[in-house]
Amino acid sequence: MSTKRTEPPSPSAAPRPTKIANTDSEDAPLPAPVSHLLIKRLSEKAKLPTRGSALAAGYDLYSAEQKVIPAGGKALVDTQISIAVPVGTYGRVAPRSGLASKFMIDTGAGVIDADYRGVVFVLLFNHSDKDFQGGRL
Prior knowledge:
By secondary structure, the chain is mainly beta. The protein has a single domain (35-137), classed as Deoxyuridine 5'-Triphosphate Nucleotidohydrolase, Chain A (Distorted Sandwich). The protein is built from one helix and seven strands. The chain is globular.
């Protein structure tokens, strides 16, 4: 008796939208599958990440401490949260365009590995000539 092996369809075989649809219309493309993040507050000072909108590219992180980033300086900001990202992925702490354009605040060294379970810190650089203090990173 012979058995016939069938291969699963490749991901590239699925039809892809050729243009961006109006997201207010009924025929808008469905969002990509969501991978779940596990987030743990490590203190009462921690604020859980939030999404700015339903289609936001990521989550907003928040400082758990009052910290001033000196003009022309840098600071490591404590979020007091721990994040577990799905295996096969990584988390990325990226600069926020509003902080960059309005206050010249940039983010550095922002990778969260899938096996990292420690406190998430955010390295911020202040490229302006004024000290900066803010809560949303």
